[in-house]
Automatic annotation (TrEMBL), chain A:
Source organism of the structure: Spelaeicoccus albus
Gene Ontology BP terms: transmembrane transport
Protein name: Raffinose/stachyose/melibiose transport system permease protein
Region (Disordered): 1-23
Keyword field contains Cell division: no
Span of domain ABC transmembrane type-1: 98-312
GO cellular component assignments: plasma membrane
Keywords tagged on the record: Cell membrane, Membrane, Transmembrane, Transmembrane helix, Transport
Chief localization: membrane
UniProtKB/TrEMBL annotation, chain B:
UniProt KW keywords: Cell membrane, Membrane, Transmembrane, Transmembrane helix, Transport
GO terms under biological process: transmembrane transport
The UniProt record lists the keyword Ubl conjugation: no
Full protein name: Raffinose/stachyose/melibiose transport system permease protein
A Pfam cross-reference name: BPD_transp_1
Amino acid sequence: MSLTEKGEAGPGRSARPGGSARRRRPWHVYRRAPGEPRTVGYLYILPALAVFVVFIVLPLLQSVRYSLYDWDGLSPARWAGADNYVALLTDPDLRGAFVHALILLLFYAALPVLIGLLLAATMSRIRVRGLTFFRTVLFLPQVLAMVVVAVAWRWVYAPSGVVNQVLGLIGLGSKGQPWLGNPDLALPAIGIAGTWVGFGLCMVLFMAGVQSIPRELYEAARLDGAGAVREFFAVTLPALRPQIAVATTLTIVAGLRNFDLIYLTTSGGPGNSTSVPAYEVYHRAFELSQVGSAATVGVGLTVVVFVLTAVVSRLVEGKQ
Amino acid sequence: MISSRRDRSVTYVILIVFTIIALVPLVQILSAALSTDQYAQPGLRFPDGLHLENFVHAWTRGHFGSFLGSSVLVAVTVVVAAGIFSIMAAYAFGTMRFPGSKVLFYLFVLGLTIPEEVIVIPLYYGFRDLNLTNTYWALILPQTAQSVAFGTYWMRTYFVSASRSLIEAARLDGASSWGILWRILVPSGRPAITTMIVITFMWTWNEFLLPLVMISSGNHRTVPLGLAFFQGQHSSDISLLAAGAVLVALPVVIVYLIFQRRFIEGMVSGAVKE
């Protein structure tokens, strides 16, 4: 209290007495207020900005430069102009990698959002006992290192693994196989591991959103005789639009950057059936010594991330 | 009433099904980590005992002891450095006005979505030219930069909401901007800071690509990299691999169980809005 009263007697104050003066104080007075010189702000951001620029911004620009060269990492680089970018659009392997990434987004982003909605919607209808337990367990895959996730899911798909065990139990043992070794099934198999990682995050986001929906809306819907399904489409889904946007953005960004899982489970194989841009960047730069091409894929990946995040946020804001 | 009872059972059935799905892949690892190597194999099986010696073997024969040492060193340094830098930067962005502050802040926000893959190539050649690959610097500096992007974004929200009248009162009392930050705002911002710390700890601990690229000799490997190499070399040694996987996951899982509300809050906030 005494502190505030001292504040009332401050320099910017005397000119304009009265209750509302504090809010109306012109902002140049703010800037020159003692202890807040304008330039000190730069000193505060300097350390963070320095590491950020040196270790993120400059490397990003450097990658753009690499992408214009042909370079094996050792001998002198050769100017390649737009060649690498032409290859990015025409090389079937590279195009395939981007197609795989988009297919994986169905598993990494769309499916977790749908499952998250299902879980949040069912939980919105009753008071769940043990809510903290369920939330803690369902979110757990999010915090595990991808190395651990990869070990777990390699085993799930192994010949003696859980999937084949379950198939055996329901009498479909003959369909059992090493799932990650099948060129047609390896990609969706990895996708499902990604779904497993992501759905808890979506659920938590949607549960927070559901809690902020006024109860009266549900009561009104019930008075109108709406069942669980209509209630979901009339009340829950529209109210959750911002959370759906956030969940989609987060899972898309995480999915496109996902290198670890591919590298540690299939290394892009069998054949090229599970290669994705994030994996191609590493593979080309550090295993094939095609640094220029690798950087081009990286730049392309960055562009795709930015475009998709922008599109998602535009879609959401456009409708509101 | 009947419909509400049906709602109830449908909800619990769905929840339990997904809880089982979330747990089964992890339970098989735990079970293999407790079994003898002759018995253990991928798949869900009840352990044939409580063979805790697997963890001892992973620690010594699998070198996980030394990997854990590297991981702790890197994670603690990154968390402390990124934490201090983020708090300072967010304080400026949240409470001061200076030309260019908006643009600079958006630069940090943009950093949240840049894929690591695109920056890791120049980082590798840069560190190689300075003879700094195979050192902890090659892990600490880039990860500090990545954590600073999130930390600044996260902490700015706290500083914006911190009471302006409190700051001004302290200033008129003669406190310097440095004193206001560390003696008034940081102590009362402990919840936000805790969240930042647990999130950056988890990211640093789990990081895989950077150590994979930067570290080629054994003694600087962090645990995720150690586990990946172990998987490559002894993929038939199922119970040892499982014990290693448990050792990688355990520190983060413990922190998660203690701070789960903060964890969840921080991870779902990654939403870049405004």
